[in-house]
């Protein structure tokens, strides 16, 4: 198996991008975006996770089978997030039952 040598400069660039995305996350958290808060936070988190998976886990330079399994895990994560959001976004649609008589 051949190994790809990644320069330290690239690692520092990815680290800088992760720090910028973290600063954006903190800055956006102080603003009330309504229902978009969750989507903005998840979008930034997905960007950070993609950088970590590609470069720090060395998927970027791996063979195609590793890409398939990493992509399958990422798709599974998207499915889990979609089901969680569909549950939490529709909870207000269910009417509450009347209180029990005492």
What does this structure look like?
By secondary structure, the protein is an all-alpha fold. The protein has one domain. It has three helices and no strands. 0% of the residues are buried. The mean pLDDT is 88.
Offer a concise description of the structure.
The protein is built from 3 helices and no strands. By secondary structure, the chain is mostly helical.
Features:
mainly alpha
Task: Present the secondary structure layout.
Elements: H1 8-29, H2 36-56, H3 64-89
Helix pairs in contact: 1-2
Number of strands: 0
Chain-averaged pLDDT: 88
Task: Please state the oligomeric state of the protein chains shown.
Answer: single chain
Question: What is the number of helices?
Answer: 3
Please identify the structural class as seen in this structure: mainly alpha
Number of domains: 1
Q: Sketch the topology as an H/E string, one letter per element.
A: HHH
Low-confidence stretches at least 5 residues in length (pLDDT < 50)?
A: none
What is the beta-strand fraction?
under 5%
In angstroms, what separates the terminal alpha carbons? Answer: 73 Å
Radius of gyration using CA atoms only? 20 Å
- Give the % helix: 55-70%
- Could you describe the largest sheet, including whether it forms a barrel? none
Overall geometric form: elongated
